[in-house]
Amino acid sequence: MSTIPEIRIHDQLSLPKLGIGTWEMGGRQKQDIQLDNHWINALMYALDAGIRHIDTAAIYGGGHTEELVGRAIKGFKREQLLITTKVSGDNLGRDMVRASAEKSLKRLETDYIDLFLVHWPNPAFPLSETMAAINQLLAQKTIRHFGLSNFPVHLIREVMQLTDAPIMTNQIEFNLLTRNKGSYNTGMEAEIIPFCQQNGISVTAWRPVMKGLLDPQRWPLIVSLARKYDRTVFQIALNWLISKPLVVAIPKMSDKKHIDENIAATQFVMQIHDHMLLDEMCN
Ligand SMILES: NC(=O)c1ccc[n+]([C@@H]2O[C@H](COP(=O)([O-])OP(=O)(O)OC[C@H]3O[C@@H](n4cnc5c(N)ncnc54)[C@H](OP(=O)(O)O)[C@@H]3O)[C@@H](O)[C@H]2O)c1
Fold this sequence. Notes:
By secondary structure, the chain is an alpha/beta fold. It has a single domain, classed as Alpha-Beta Barrel (TIM Barrel), CATH 3.20.20. It is about 40% helix and about 15% strand. The strands form two sheets. It has an eight-stranded parallel β-sheet with strand order 3-4-5-6-7-8-9-10. Helix 2 packs across helix 3 and helix 3 packs across helix 4. The longest helix has 15 residues.
């Protein structure tokens, strides 16, 4: 089993540099039970291999993904795991947030959620309402910590005014090839990440391995670094990401080869010069 490096957030939460994502395990928006055993085995394999952070969400598989996570973690010590789940941006009214957390607890078959995120901001709901519910869930210890996802800087600032609790993470799309133009955010590298770093908020990178799609022909630098360090191109991409201060990654991985490969990506150090070349590659 490998030891995955961890970072301390606001002196309260230890967050591993690598966790496992679960989008498309057990369906997309609707449940799909056909591959249940495959997903559960993948999650258990990852936990056995040293992963302890699982990222899921209320909407994944119409709730079924959380059920699969609940089944996969049964044989593991709950207190050693870090479960992140999210309330949908369509459910950010005060009672809706609390109801969503309760349903997640049931599906995950657990007593508490380690890290509870607002999946995306939605101007239809005042953030004051959402945060009132989150403050209450924190006070009741239903959720241990909270965070955001897909939030731009001005809304992170607004949240900071609405709670005494620290924002533990902002989960955003970010990878070697997607720097400032994401599906939901812009300016990730230019604005959001520096703001989070200045305020001690971790950045959880979603889509960190670009869905496993990278055309080596287009990126000779990545290929040459992969050769230099005797790693795969995805290990170079992941290592670049998680070497950044306060940045962690949650690739979805179900192929055992990918799980091993991604864990191994946390176990080597690239020279600063090479990091800088990769920094500049997409600018
Ligand atoms: N907050 C949000 O709005 C948001 C949005 C999207 C995603 N997320 C979270 O972020 C997680 C990751 O994002 P994602 O699933 O969209 O994209 P991703 O992690 O970049 O890509 C997952 C795909 O890459 C493959 N893969 C994993 N490791 C690989 C490797 N070393 N080499 C080659 N291919 C590899 C996986 O295949 P196998 O499964 O076959 O191993 C899977 O098909 C999600 O699962 C979800 O938990 C959050």
